[in-house]
User: What shape does this take?
Amino acid sequence: MITLCGMSLSNYYNKVKIVLLEKGIPFTEEVQRTGSKDEAVLNATPLGKVPFIKVDGQTLCESQVIVDFLEARFPEHPLLPADPLAAAKVRELCAFMELYVELVGRELYAEAFFGGKVSDGSKERVKKTLERNLPAFKRLARFAPYAAGDSFTLADAAAYAALPTVGNATRVVYGEDLVAAAGIDWKAYVKMLGDRPSLQRVNADRKRDTEAMAAAAAAKKAAEAGGQA
Ligand SMILES: N[C@@H](CCC(=O)N[C@@H](CS)C(=O)NCC(=O)O)C(=O)O
Assistant: This one.
């Protein structure tokens, strides 16, 4: 049995979870927050990033490595084409999306989603880079109707987790969704995928955990205010 460790608020965690669900692989989930100082966790994921998995008494980190392992270990319900070059084209899209879209957009998340602040210099640099990288991603992606062509692949698990996050982050920070502005209609794409049970489960779990976190934060604030009165 595979254990998926991390949290449902993480887009990389959800990328792996979508693949597990799409492939019908049995798994359990273990909540693991980022930045752990626990030795066992750091041995599994040395930078404290999530997700990682536990499998056969070992651990594996890095979402793309994990989904490639799952694809090789559980070949039924394939999420890569059988042809090696076609499979490499899907991986090419995954790599491009992670390196040039997600990792660049990620610099905005602190301000967009977590109440932090990003310097004006960083905002300017990220905007310039995304304005170059997003049209490049669009050139490589197919959206026909799936990210890499006519069937659901690993690239969709990655795109579903990354494009809305980067689109929303840019909308919050710049007042403009740079993903949509580059002609990538991620809202229509997400809607097209919306009926898939895997994605419904991922969304429901994220919503449940986001609401629980908000309730816990509100309760903590109320308790602190009560203590001060
Ligand atoms: N390249 C890693 C990235 C994972 C990652 O950055 N996860 C985020 C959560 S979405 C995280 O753990 N952030 C905490 C950190 O970077 O310290 C992967 O594909 O698994």
About this structure: The beta strands are 2-6, 27-31, 52-55, 58-61. The chain has two domains: 2-77, 84-193. The two ends are 50 Å apart (CA to CA). Residues 6 and 194 are 23 Å apart (CA to CA).
